Amino acid sequence: MDVSVIIVTRNTCSVTAEAIESVIRSKDGFTKEVIVVDNGSTDETPKLIPKMYPAVKYENAGENLGFAKANNRAARHASGNLLLLLNSDARLQPKALSKAVDFMRSHPDCGIAGAQLLNADNTLQNSIANFPTLATELFNKSILRRLFPRRYPGKEHCFDRATEVESVVGAFLLTRRTLWEKLGGLDERYFFFLEETDYCLQVQRLGFKIMHLPEVLVWHGQGQTARKTHIGARIEYWRSRYAYFQKNKGTASTLLLGAGLLARLSGNILANGLAIVLTLGMAAKARRKVFEQIALFGWHLQGCPKGDGLPR
């Protein structure tokens, strides 16, 4: 088997079907398989996906394992020399997979290949990311990209050729099975967010390149699952940031991160609260933001309990 395509889904039946269809209709000449791990969907996914696609290896986990653990479970049943992690809300353009696989085959020093992600109207999404640092997490990323575009490239940067980057967005992540097995897959300390970023860092530490391929085009719904449980998703993102720093930067940097984030969070609560008062409660955006920020602050006051976040 040349490629194993792994899709993790949870209550995203229709878009998961579209993702599978895009793999089936992919214009390539190699052997591939599709493995779907269902993280305890309560919609029609368990009934329809196995029926619609009997050739797909479908496993219902019966619970929400999280992104890392679900991908690791699927990879244990994979036969491909290359593994493609494909988000359930992503769709391959017809030649995307072929181009990515050809690049990996012709560049043995490449450990991970990522795609150019597109919105439904074909505008660009951010497809790459810097490894998290105190600067990226405590300052506005958009401002950093504008002030230091070479150091912090984003979708504003027009890539015209394959480019080595720090990490790629995990909506489309093609990697070598040998590297996956050597690293033990994704780190399951991450439930949702930054697991692919950490994986890119570990692959880079092994001496392999992380490549962004602008000619590999993939439509991406950009977080449809997370939007359904917004507060829970934000808690998971903060939790993952702390886990990343603790693992890769140590306790001192993690404490500095926490202090800086809480200070910024406090300032944002005051600013949005003031906006609500000045507009007599009419600032809907400010109301939504302050509700989210108070929830995050409360999560910290409770000691960042593991039970909060996305449903398990």
- Helical content, roughly? 40-55%
Count of alpha and pi helical runs: 12
N-to-C CA distance: 33 Å
Structural class: alpha/beta
Give the assembly state of these chains.
single chain
**Number of E strands:** 11
Largest sheet report: 9 strands, mixed
Q: What is the mean predicted local confidence, pLDDT? A: 94
What's the Cα radius of gyration?
Answer: 20 Å
Q: Assess the beta-strand content as a share of residues.
A: 15-25%
Q: Low-confidence spans: pLDDT under 50, at least 5 residues?
A: none
Give helix and strand order, one letter per element, not per position: EHEHEHEEHEEHHEEEHHEHHHH
* Tertiary shape: globular
Strand-helix topology:
Layout: E1 3-9, H1 13-24, E2 32-38, H2 45-52, E3 57-60, H3 67-75, E4 82-86, E5 90-92, H4 96-106, E6 110-118, E7 128-129, H5 134-138, H6 141-147, E8 163-164, E9 167-168, E10 172-176, H7 177-183, H8 195-205, E11 209-220, H9 224-228, H10 230-248, H11 251-278, H12 284-301
Parallel strand pairs: 1-2, 1-4, 2-3, 6-11
Antiparallel strand pairs: 4-10, 5-11, 6-10, 7-9, 8-11
Helix pairs in contact: 1-2, 10-11, 10-12, 11-12
Explain this structure.
By secondary structure, this protein is of the alpha/beta class. The protein is 45% helix and 19% strand. It has 12 helices and 11 strands. Strands 1, 2, 3, 4, 5, 6, 8, 10 and 11 form a 9-stranded mixed β-sheet that branches. The longest helix is centred in the last third of the chain and has 28 residues, at 251-278. The mean pLDDT is 94.
